[in-house]
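Input:
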Amino acid sequence: MMIIEALATTVLVFVLALSVDGLMRATTKKLNDDAERMDAARWAINRHRHALEHVFASESVEPILKNYILDISRQVPDEASAPALVRWFEDGLPHHRDKTDADEAFSNALADLKSANPQAYREMIVAMRTALVAMIMQWPDVSDRFRIMAELAGEDAGEASAAAAAVRSAATSGTPAGKVHAYA
Amino acid sequence: MNELLKELAAKIRVIKTGPLIGRHVFLLLLAGLAFYALANHAPTIGVVIIVVLVLSFDQIPAMIAAYRKRDKAKLNLDTELENLKNAYKKLMKDISEPELPLEPPSSAEDQRRQSDDDH
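Output:
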């Protein structure tokens, strides 16, 4: 009888020990994942800042583009920007619909910049892409993070600028981001 | 010398990976030890052996290192965000400042003097 009790206790302790061990392993993995995510966000913000400074140092970049990229840059630390971006992607990347005058002027200025100063154009696109990456990598609970990253990497520069415009419109419209965006 | 170093590195790798491979075996041994302690009217010792050894097995150092790594990454991210904020303020200031005209605007007194000269 006593041996049975001891055996049962041992099994219980063994299960408990395995549970604690599993919990500790899961915690360690989550901490490491968080650290890697924040490192990626830090890299993106750093690259965004350098691209921003390059764009502003270039004389051939029109003020409308500078204002536009500054608007997007302001949204980078904002937690509400990530849901806005996720919603935009969940809607199937709608773009070129219901374009505002500001979006149209931005697109035209961007096209002009491409031919006038390819280097500044490239930095402008880098600034937009890295802003979007920083938005989604800063927060732990952003759904579809890797799909969005894959879309941003795969699509052309127009998609990046459309995504940036969606975030900008959601943030500047005064409505909660994630509910309303430029192309909804 | 290189061969010696390679051999040493191989040995270190074996030592490092050894305990990870035998993790469950090690736990089973611990359970056996605890069973022995419990069967010999020493339940407390058995439980303590299991808890202490399991907790310190290989997870506590790894978890502490992970906490430190996460805190460092957060600090670096906050610093980078602060840098971006400062850069944003500077660029915003640059873009909102009107361009200085090449010649300073004439004051009212200058205009009056000019008018007197004309007359």
